[in-house]
Structures are given as C-alpha cells and as structure tokens.
Amino acid sequence: MTQTPRTLSPGGAEAAGTAPQAPHRRVPRVHPAWYAAAVAFLTIVGAAAFASLPGLLIEPLQAEFGWSRGTIGFAISVNLALYGLTAPFAAALMDRFGIRRVVACALTLIAAGAGSAVLMTEPWQFVLSWGVAVGLGSGSMALAFSATVANRWFAARRGLVTGLLTAAGASGQLVFLPLLSWTIDRHDDWRPAAVTVALAALAVVPLVWLLLRDHPADAGLPPYGATEFVPKPAPVPGAAARAVRVLLDAARTGPFWLLAGTFAICGASTNGLIKTHFVPAAHDHEMPVTVAASLLAVIGVFDIVGTVFSGWLTDRFDSRRLLAVYYALRGASLLCLPVLLAPEVRPPMLLFIVFYGLDWVATVPPTIALCREHYGEDGAIVFGWVLASHQVGAGLVAFLGGVARDAFGSYDLVWVASGALCAAAALMALVIRGRREPAAAG
Fold first, then answer.
1. Strand partners, 15
2. Coiled coil: which residue ranges (predicted)?
3. CA 392, CA 371: separation in Å to the nearest integer?
4. What distance in Å separates the CA atoms of residue 390 and residue 366, rounded to the nearest whole number?
5. What residues have CB less than 8 Å from 121, skipping those under 6 apart?
6. Cα separation of 69 and 401, whole Å?
7. Phi and psi dihedrals of 202, rounded to 5?
8. Do 56 and 190 form a contact (C-beta atoms < 8 A)?
9. Which residue, 135, 392, 89, is CA-closest to 267?
10. Burial letters for 394-405: b for 16+ Cβ neighbours within 10 Å, e otherwise?
11. Cβ distance 322 to 426 under 8 Å?
C-alpha cells in the first residue's frame, strides 16, 4: 500500500491524508531550477576570487614584512579551517533564513575582510582579516551551498548539477588567478589584488538578492524531475542546535568517519597543498610566478571538465569505487611532482596539470551522493561537517607545508607525504558500506 503524502498546512503543521496541491501553473519549457543553478554558478564564480589569492600572497608578504612561510601559512590555515567549520551551520542557516540572505551576508563579510587586509602591518591582523573574516564568509559560501541548491531544486540530475556548481569555483579560479597574478606583478604590490577580491565579492551581492529564489515552491512549481508539487517547508528554528544534533547523530555511524577522513585528505592534497604552496614551490625552482599561477589556472580549466564528468559518473556508478580511483590516481601523481618542477614548463608538467585538474574536486559529487544516501534529508548538513574535515585537513597542510619549507628548504617531503595520504584515502573509500534498505513489511 502506498502512503498518502503529507503536506504542510498554512500554519506550518503537517496534515495527513491530503495530496500536495500545486498552484495551477504550467511548467515552462526551461524549468526555473536551471535558472537557480545558473545564478548559483555565477555567484560561486564571482566569490572564487578570494580562494585564488592565498598562494599568491606568500612571497609578497614575506618580502614586505619579513614574515616566515609558517606564519603566513598559519593565517591561511585559520581561513581554511573556519571555511570548513562554518559550512554545516551555514547549511542549517539556509534552512532557517533562506539561501539569499545567508549568501548575501557571507559575500559582504568576505568583502570587508579582504578590504581591511590592505591596512595590516602585523601578523595578527592578517589572521583576523583574512583568516577569520574571509574564512567565516567563505564558509557560508562553501560546497554546502551547492548541495542545498541541488537538493532543493532538483529531483533528477542532482549529480550533474552538483558537478556543475562544484566546477564553478574552478571557473572563478580560471578567471581570477591570472588576473590577480598580473595585478601583483604589474603594481609590485599585493594590495590591489586584495581590493579586487573585495570588489568581486560585492559585485555578486545584487545578483544573489534579486535573482536567486530559495525554493521551487516560490515559483509555484515542483522540483526539476519531480511529478508532484513540494510545499516549501516552514523555517527550521534553532539552526545551530540542529547542526550540532545532526553531527552527534552522524558521528555514531561508521560511514561518517570514513567520509570525513577521506575528505580531510582531499582538502590536504588540494586547497592546503597545491592551491597554497604550488606557486611558491615552483618559484623555488626558478619558475616565474606568473607562469606558475597560469598553470594553477589551467588546473581550473580541467577541473570543470573533471567535476562535471564525475557528476555524470556519480549518477551511474558506485560512488565508493569512484572515490577509490580518484584518490589512488591523485596520490600517484603527487609522488611524481618533485621531479617535474623546473624553471621552464615541460610536457610531463603539463600532463600533471591536466590530470590534477581532472581529479581536483571530482571527489565532491560522489561524496555528496554518499552523504545523501546514508543521511537523507540531513545529507546537506552532514556534508557540511564532512566539508569541515576537508578544510581542517587543508589548513593543517597549509601550515605544516610552510613549516616544512622553512625547516628543510624544499617541499619534497610534503609532496611524498601527501601522496601516501591519498593512497590511504583510496583504501578508506572502499571500506564504506552501502546503505542497507529496510526490509519490506510482510
């Protein structure tokens, strides 16, 4: 026997025994879900400017203020850690206050942090402006935003949409990395680049506020791929308490710790390692900074292709096996990197850049799919906590990578250790058990 759907009454209470009634509105040829995805994509592209800058700041700050790479890496690690720790609360806040309000406030905070950084003279000011303010703002613009949009607006093609929105960050990197690198080189000063980041974040705010709707019900339509109208749920009070409660519930399960562990290694080997330290490491081998930054931007080109393709694969294949393949190949490529760095760009380095781009965030769609598979409606918040582990891992390597460079004079040990961690992540992904469907009632 099929269960009668339940809907929300105008007062927010559930009423059993009545089918959901959609407003009498004809579904347009292009479903508004695709417009919501397009606005979210452009928003993430515009906000990607702040994520493109840290690796370009290390040498200019070291030259101007005499700060060690460990000191600069610490501020970046605070940024990355807060980015992750804010994400699960941001997902819950979006349920409480709506996507538009949370994202608009986050972009404004990013602009304030990046803009105030131009006035700093001490390391603690860098930690406060870039580490805390930009970290908190970027955490609210984290991948939980992509998961929320995909889960609310799409009943079909979720993997593909998740891949597209994840790739938006790479698209922004492609746009902003060469621009910011050229700006720093042209003016021989990092401050104009920081101002560019602040202006880019502010420019996106009107786009979000005017065009991004919170739920398909606001358009009077069912989600894309659904046959029945889904009422807009009442605001969920106690966003912070809910985020903590979801964490405590998920922490009692094995899949959560395996997903968190693999994603921590993902963050360590991408944002913490390559995005933060690739440019200064390449410059250690006498490669010009603008060339190294352009290579990092090329990663963004192939990141788009790899992430969208990964979303397509996630709709068709076992997410656990996809993760195992992604991490194993990433680890193998990192083990090769120490011999590839040189003053000029050679074909093997281009091969590394292409592969790393394809693999960069290909892990995101299958990870989101596993969170949704195991934790249902709380999947976006659980993914927020898994993302927190991603950023904590990134923050540790951003800091420890700088410390290792200060201590040993090179990054060789960091590349090899990160490759070994990726091999461990591949094994962890295979250990995740599939969710068992409840037995049918006899």
1. 7
2. none
3. 19
4. 14
5. 65
6. 9
7. -65, -35
8. yes
9. 392
10. bbbbbbbbbbbb
11. no
Instruction: Measure Cα distances from 110 to 17, 198, 364 in Å.
Output: 47, 7, 23
- CA proximity to 112, closest of 128, 92, 90, 94: 128
Cα separation, 423 vs 408, in Å, equals 24
The residue type of 345 is V
The tens-digit pLDDT sequence of the chain (442 residues) is: 444 444 443 333 444 444 444 454 566 677 778 888 888 887 777 766 666 677 778 888 888 888 888 888 888 888 878 877 777 777 777 777 888 888 888 888 888 888 888 888 888 988 888 888 888 887 777 666 777 788 788 878 777 787 778 777 766 766 777 788 888 888 888 888 888 888 888 888 888 888 777 777 777 777 777 777 777 767 666 767 877 888 899 999 989 999 999 999 998 998 888 888 888 888 888 888 888 888 887 887 787 788 788 888 888 888 899 999 999 999 999 998 988 988 888 899 999 998 888 887 789 889 988 988 888 878 878 887 888 888 889 888 888 888 888 888 888 899 999 999 999 999 999 998 765 444 344 4
Give the list of residues 6+ apart from residue 201 with CB closer than 8 angstroms, or none: 46, 47, 49, 50, 107, 108, 110, 111, 114, 137
Domains of the chain in start order, with CATH, are: 29-220+239-431 (1.20.1250.20)
With 0.85 as the threshold, say if the pTM is over it: no
Amino acid at 201: A
